Amino acid sequence: MNSTQDKRELLKGLRQTPKILSEFLKTIPKDKIYLRRGEDFWTIAEHIRHLAEVQPMLLERFQRFINEDHPEFIPYIPSDAKPESLSHPHINVTSAIEQFANYRDKEIVLLEDTDDIIWQKTGTHPEYEYYSFRILVRHVLLHDYWHMYRMEQLWLTKDEYLPKL
């Protein structure tokens, strides 16, 4: 696959994720959305909120790659708050999905305007041996689907088979 085709496919995936996530969530019974399956496990609602909350940071990283020659990033570590303090009464899933979709639209507009020079830019990230704009774009897509997969595990997997992370 050439770089133009790769870019097109990655953008297509990013564009589709909010709709796939929204439709997927419609299939999950409401009582499962806020169910905590174990100590230190996030609820499905917490995964949704996380996807929404990281979008501003991701948009900023895209912008830094565009505006800087070789950006240096620091790791993003989700809140160290206890899972109980992140519990269901405080998470509006509908608002989180809307925030996720709105930021994704902004990201797509920004990404569609980038040329091959931007897609080839590299940066530094202490977690990775090599980091580039293309890797960041792919990382965002994989991150979305990893969380959706985890939501499906939390919904459907029997206790004895549910992996701890």
Structure characterization notes:
- The protein is an all-alpha fold.
- It has a single domain, classed as Four Helix Bundle (Hemerythrin (Met), subunit A) (Up-down Bundle).
- Helices cover 61% and strands 2% of the residues.
- It is built from 6 helices and 2 strands; from the N terminus they run αααααββα.
- It has a two-stranded antiparallel ribbon.
- A hairpin with a 7-residue loop joins strand 1 and strand 2.
- Helix 3 packs parallel to helix 4 and helix 3 runs antiparallel to helix 6.
- It is globular and about 45 Å long.
- It starts with a helix and ends in a 9-residue tail after the last helix.
- About 5% of the residues have low confidence.
Keyphrases for this structure?
165 residues; mainly alpha; Four Helix Bundle (Hemerythrin (Met), subunit A); globular
